[in-house]
Amino acid sequence: MKKGCWTMSPTEIDDALSQVRLMQDLVATKRRFQGYSGLARVLSGTLALLASMVMASSRVDDTPMAHLIGWGVVLFLGIIFNYAALGYWFLFNEHVRRNPVMLKPAVDALPALAVGAALSLALILRGEYDLLFGAWMTLYGLAQVAYRQSLPSGIYAVGVGYVLCGMYCLVSPYVTFTNPWPMGIVFLAGEWTGGIILYVTKQRHTAHHASPQPEMQHGNR
Predict the structure, then answer these.
(1) Closest CA to 70 of 91, 49, 87, 43
(2) Which pLDDT tens digit goes with each residue over 11-58?
(3) 19 in any annotated domain
(4) CA separation for the pair 48, 183 (Å, rounded)
(5) Which of 31, 43, 23 has the alpha carbon at shortest distance from 201?
(6) Contacts of 7 by beta carbon, 8 Å cutoff, 6+ apart
(7) Domain assignment of residue 107, yes or no
(8) How many domains in the chain?
(9) Angstrom distance (rounded) from CA 109 to CA 155
(10) Per the count of CB atoms within 10 A, which of 33, 43, 191, 192 is most buried?
């Protein structure tokens, strides 16, 4: 060996790689957005299925307007569930400290949601009710794809799933607005899956920060 050169033992190499992986995990955790509630998503998905059951029954008129009102109620309650949880996190989480910058990932989804609102209004005004499910699913899915860098990778997959289901609803002649089951089933599956992913990720994040972290060590032990 040349004078002045040094080598690392296999144990030291393993320790160094472990420290690198730890730092990568810490950086990824810091970048993830913790403001959304998994429970709120599960409640929203359950509400969509319950609404489908009600609208499919004889108690609701089989007209586009009656079903539009029903889905409007689902949307209103879903917004309350999710944004109330987001607001609580923003106001009371000790790591957020009411810093508006922490809400940036939530703002990133607004363009897709705004386009969804405008497109929905355009379709309703033109009487194209049968295209609403497809429009809602695709644009809601795109809004979740926008969180690729700030939410767990599973949410990106859920967003892609919504987009694929929405594309099918847009081209399928069998999907009609007065049949609520496609919307209810897709949103039940998507919101439950997304909610479970968020819940499990948040539990891991909490446990990770609650446990003592190994200190970075330099040089030989």
Answers:
(1) 49
(2) 766 665 555 454 444 344 445 788 899 999 999 999 999 999 999 999
(3) no
(4) 8
(5) 31
(6) 1
(7) yes
(8) 1
(9) 13
(10) 191
